[in-house]
Amino acid sequence: MRFARRAWIVVWKDLTIEGRSKETLNALLFFSLLLLFLFQFALGPDRERLASVLPGLLWLGFILSGLLGLGRTFVGERENDCWDGLRLAPGDKSAIYLGKLAGNLLLMLLVETTLLALFAVFFNVDIGPAAPGLALVVGLGTIGLAAIGTLFAAMTAQVRARELLFPVLLLPVQVPVLLGTVKATEAVLLGEPLGAVAHWLRLLAAADVVYVAIGVLTFDFILDG
Amino acid sequence: MTRALGWLATLGLIGGLVMGFGVAPREVTQGNVQRIMYLHVPTAWVAYLAFGIVFFASIGYLWTRSDAADRLARASAEAGVIFTGVTITAGSIWGKPTWGTWWTWDARLTSAAIMFVMYLGYLLLRGIIEEPEQAARYSAVLGIVAALDVPLVHFSVYWWRTLHQPPTVMKPGPVNMPPAILAALLVNVVAFTLLYTYFVVKRVNTLRREHEVLA
Amino acid sequence: MADNWQFVAAAYGLAAAVLGGYWRRLVRLDRKLAAAQVRRRNRPADKIQ
Description:
Low-confidence stretches of chain B: 163-170
Distance between the termini of chain C: 76 Å
Number of domains of chain B: 1
Radius of gyration of chain C: 22 Å
CATH architecture of chain B: Up-down Bundle
Order of helices and strands of chain B: HHHHHH
Helix content of chain C: over 70%
Largest sheet of chain C: none
Distance between the termini of chain B: 25 Å
Number of strands of chain B: 0
Mean pLDDT of chain B: 87
Structural class of chain B: mainly alpha
Oligomer: heterotrimer
Low-confidence stretches of chain C: none
Radius of gyration of chain B: 19 Å
CATH class of chain B: Mainly Alpha
Shape of chain C: rod-shaped
CATH topology of chain B: Four Helix Bundle (Hemerythrin (Met), subunit A)
Number of strands of chain C: 0
Strand content of chain C: under 5%
Largest sheet of chain B: none
Mean pLDDT of chain C: 83
Structural class of chain C: mainly alpha
Strand content of chain B: under 5%
């Protein structure tokens, strides 16, 4: 109970800060819009070709905006000299990890929903019938991305060249999530039943469990010293 | 002690070359180019072994905070990256005459390549952090993440490739290996494992000396 | 199928270059550190005199 409360305090603090400044959310939404333009310009207006690469583009967009958003997880703490405050917080540090993870999940899901809506409009895709399956796939993929992203963000926050190091460390580790989500999204958008991609969903779920478990178990070592 | 290990590894490698080029017969379907297998398979095995040891040494470091575990992890990761590099290059060179292309997104090639960049990132992280204790702590966490990610990478890449095109028929090495080929392979596996051990011991020694000089 | 000896030679040659290069690096580093250690050991003695 106290554990959950401490995690919640972290979420509440971050949400309050974000709610007042809105700087990360606004920038990320603007960035997704720009990504959409870029994809269109790079691939041309040919609808059929776009449709065939749509799942890949979608997840490329999610990952790029995720890299920007997740990388900022602990920037506020560092810039405002709150890092020691986190370190000195009593009790198990994994509550802080879970709180940060929850905040990141919320942020990313918000950005992803917007990006999905923009894709539906600009690329003329009907995502209505695929929505439940899509929600499951996006949810599973985002948990995996955010779990490792939050851990690595803490790891690179105090390191020089962190803007460079964060994606370089995160991207190779995220290959299973990227492959699984792209394949599953493709199937869901084509109207296939979820059973056809059950092995991918299981892989994503396994990855989520492994990643979150590692994060909870090792966060203490990153923060504490 | 280290020197003896080095000579033992050299001896093993010479034995491996003799077995691979002298004793083992010319493979029937692929020709002599199959002899690259005596390099490719043992280095791949050593790469997995090295990263496995990084994993256990990382856990050991977080558990005990002993510098020795950290040095072992670092030395093993370096050797692992080098052996992964060798195995990928050898596989690629073998692939050109056999598959007709230097690179194909074959399941095993791809997962080896991803492993390669993952542990390159590990070494990059180690190089960037100046404070030794922090570097040890962070890279131990990364070593655990990367090792547990390897099976996930392997499965995902395997499904990604095999569900959309028939699995590659020609694998490095024939399916039913004649005993001479198998023996040559085993000798080389032992030889490269010895070489890896020598590298790690030597590297751990230099890291300890570095620590003593800087202390 | 053709023998493609040049590919075999390339693979083994590259591997030898990479592994040998790493070995040379280790040996050099070892020597450099040993020299530094000797220098360090001698230094306090100088101060005493």
